[in-house]
Amino acid sequence: VSPGNCWPLQGHQGQVVIRLPARAHLTAVAVQHIAKEVSPSGTVISAPRDMAVFVSLCWALLAGIWPWGKAGVDADGEEETLLGTFTYDVAQELIQTFPLKNAPLPRAFSRIKLLVKSNWGNPAYTCIYRVQVHGKVA
Predict the structure, then answer these.
(1) How much is the mean pLDDT over the chain?
(2) Averaged pLDDT, 98-118
(3) Would you call 57 exposed, middle or buried from its count of C-beta atoms within 10 A (0-12, 13-18, 19+)?
């Protein structure tokens, strides 16, 4: 992880869909940000704060997996299931691991959506340095 070499999201919110190299029974998500001491700005206000992780049942259908529960609907009308919400704390370890609800999940998935609800105070952008998805390959 190199300071300034991040996946930037415009504003204090945003989302990314991450395609995994293989379908997996998901158990946890880890998020990493840089230390304040190595930050070009001397702060970590661009770090994600409140986040949520989803899987799409439509993605599962495309992969030949039947839905395993009712879910919300995203802006494109796709059904999604919330796997967990968590807060990245800039005062704690740089890499923080968050267990997912009902882990390990009964179905394997190949994509997740990370929704960043807020950051630590930067109105212009949010930096995602590293996201790791934990689970057992299907």
Answers:
(1) 86
(2) 89
(3) buried
* Dihedral sign, Cα of residue 103, residue 104, residue 105, residue 106: negative
For residue 58, the model assigns a pLDDT of 63
> Can you tell me the distance from the alpha carbon of 36 to that of 44, in angstroms, rounded to the nearest whole number?
5
Residue 53, strand partner residues: 84, 114
Averaged pLDDT for residues 115-125 = 97
Quick one: tokens of 110?
């190949």
Closest CA relative to residue 76, chosen from 113, 104, 45: 113
Residue type, 5: N
Amino acid, single-letter form, for residue 31: V
Contact 12, 126 (CB under 8 A): yes
65 falls in which pLDDT band (50, 70, 90)?
very low
Main-chain dihedrals φ then ψ at residue 4, nearest 5 degrees: 85, -15
Its sign, for the CA torsion 99, 105, 111, 112, is negative
